[in-house]
Amino acid sequence: MSSRSHSRRRRRCDPVRRVAYTALLATETRGAYANLALSEQLRMSALTGRDAAFATELVDGTARGTGSWDRIITAAGGRPASTLQPGVRVVLRMACHQILQMRVPTHAAVGTSVDLAAHVIGERVTGLVNAVARKISLHGLPEWAEIIAPDDPVEQLAIATLHPRWIVTEYAELLDGDESLDSENLAAGCAAGSGEVRRALMADNIAATPTLVVRPGLATVDELLAQGASACEYSRFGGHRAGNPREVPAVADGRAGVQDEGSQLVATALADTCDVDGPWVDICAGPGGKAALLAGLAAEHHRFFAAGELHPHRARLVANALAPIPGDHAVLVADGTHPPVRPGVCAAVMTDVPCSGLGALRRRPESRWRERDLDTLVPLQQDLLHHAIALARPGGVIGYVTCSPHHRETTEVVCQALRHEPVEALDTPSLMAGVPDCATGPDGRFVQLWPHRHGTDAMFCAVLRRTS
Length: 468
Known about the structure:
Layout: H1 3-10, H2 15-30, H3 34-44, H4 49-64, H5 66-77, H6 86-100, H7 106-120, H8 126-136, H9 141-148, H10 153-160, H11 165-175, H12 183-191, H13 196-203, E1 211-214, H14 221-226, E2 230-231, E3 238-240, H15 249-252, E4 256-258, H16 261-273, E5 280-282, H17 289-300, E6 305-309, H18 312-322, E7 329-333, E8 346-352, H19 374-391, E9 392-402, H20 411-420, E10 423-425, E11 439-440, E12 446-448, H21 451-454, E13 460-466
Parallel strand pairs: 5-6, 5-8, 6-7, 8-9
Antiparallel strand pairs: 1-3, 1-4, 2-3, 9-13, 10-13, 11-12, 12-13
């Protein structure tokens, strides 16, 4: 037996880290969603409790920091991370997160990374992994940011907060209220090292506590509180509760669900504004969270509710969400740009358009490194809003919603509709009474929620009324 084979046989591979590695490799090579890949691996493994929690943190943090970790691996290894084979990149990214964010002792992080590499790739890469991981441990994350970008405070902030540069720039423009922020002022603001831009970026790195929502008429918030939840600060239908939501009886039997508080707020804002007769419609309903809340509220108002969804598998999710809800409702497999509903008759139309997902980075850790093509998305968003307006009757209301704060997907889309369509903008912030510091857009008539301000996803909402 060779010494190399003997060395490999003696190595012990930590099963927790191997589960995390397998999920992350699927994300790297197949474009899988990190949370779904991990869920699959956890089902196949025997990990529970603290081990499952460690694997979850390792996957989320490694995926969240992908771009920053690759910059550090490149600097520490003396060669672009992109030239390494995918498995080696994944192992070294995991080492970065353990050393720089999880405070795993250096000897443990390096040793387990070398052992993992030996088992999943081969002994031939262990020397490289050992050398690069040890060099990574020589500096903290802020120091690495300064080493990599010594004269660029914007890039330093991007690396240190685990974001691509374009998101740092976009947040700075949005939160400073100046979409033409010049590079000198942007750099000065980032160099300050504190302030709202940094808080917004850091909030993206904090996992959201599960938020529950009751189905109107089927469960109450008091029932959630009795099961250990704490009431939401702004939504009258929600509560926060750590742990597995399926352990809550109301969730298990469909009388409540899981939904971010921001999503609850935009749905109720539309429902509370509707004061004319006619059906309510959600033209982009998948996977069904907002549709379920709207269907329950429509039933309380004795209104017919229709949910349209383009993709059949997502339409089935909508149907499952609506199944326990009383009242008259239907789920249609339909394209929101060609809705099978007669124009000009709807009292309320929800338009939760496909978007970049920039507002849900804390839930989808790898998504910040997968920039969506806004040149393709924005025309679709404009088209969906146009058809939503066409469905509304005079006096009917339209909710335009994105889970993104990006100005091209939000204010620009709505302002174009206001210029060319028979609609007026309602004072949307007033429809969310008690939610502070949420006004945005011309004259402050739209709403932009933020994780660091409101504890919600970064939801945008504009409620419009058809005038003729």
